[in-house]
TrEMBL record:
Membrane spanning residue stretches: none
Family: Belongs to the OPI10 family.
InterPro entries associated with the record: Hikeshi-like_C, Hikeshi-like_N, OPI10
Organism: Salix udensis
Domain Hikeshi-like N-terminal: from-to ranges: 18-118
GO MF annotation terms: nuclear import signal receptor activity
GO BP annotation list: protein import into nucleus
Name used for this protein in its record: Hikeshi-like domain-containing protein
UniProt domain Hikeshi-like C-terminal: residue ranges: 133-184
GO CC annotation terms, alphabetical: cytosol; nucleus
Length: 188
């Protein structure tokens, strides 16, 4: 069905390395894989195996969970995108941590994989999301530079005219109308 590799940490592992919870859910206990150093595992490569095809409206979603925290979505693969290298931004361990005794299982980090409806998942278009983020940062930088040219300093506070946002926005719109390449420069 699927396989995973942790770059610089493992050999390819298939679904048999995971515990199957039910027909559509699998869990990899990171304690058995890396012990308590789960947070040093920063990436996972997940891929569909050739013998398995998902329906076009389904995805294989990947989630991570630090001890005591909720599962957090990382990304997914689909038939249109049958492999992906996903960054594992482990959430902070939750406040529900309990000391383990001899009769309780140790608390561990987990990686979850599940078959889900594609429309129910966040956007998988990482390149588009990065592009939007880059444009937002460039627009913010443009605004900051414009405001900085009008600033006065009062102690540790910057002082700008009250209508500075209106003035910047009008100037921004006028330049975008005059120069068709102006907005394109924000995408680079």
């Amino acid at each position: 069905m699927f396989g995973v590799v942790f770059p610089d940490r493992s050999f390819p592992m298939d679904i048999s390395a995971f515990s199957q919870i039910d027909t559509f859910h699998w869990i990899l206990d990171m304690n058995t894989f890396v012990g308590e150093a789960y947070d040093q595992v920063r990436e996972i490569c997940i891929f569909l195996l050739n013998s398995f095809t998902l329906p076009p409206d389904k995805a294989l979603a990947v989630y991570i969970q630090s001890p005591g925290s909720e599962f957090q979505f990382c990304g997914a693969v689909t038939t249109a995108r049958p492999s992906a290298v996903l960054t594992l931004n482990w959430p902070e361990p939750g406040g529900q941590l309990q000391l383990t005794g001899p009769e309780t299982a140790p608390v561990s980090a987990k990686i979850g994989v599940s078959v889900e409806d594609l429309v129910a998942l966040p956007s998988l278009d990482v390149a588009a999301e990065k592009g939007v983020e880059r444009v937002a940062m460039k627009v913010g930088e443009n605004l900051f530079n414009y405001m900085q040219s009008f600033c006065g300093v009062d102690g540790s506070k910057l002082i700008v005219p009250m209508d500075i946002l209106d003035r910047w926005f009008k100037k921004f719109q006028e330049r975008a109308k005059r120069d068709p390449n102006f907005l394109k420069s924000f995408r680079m």
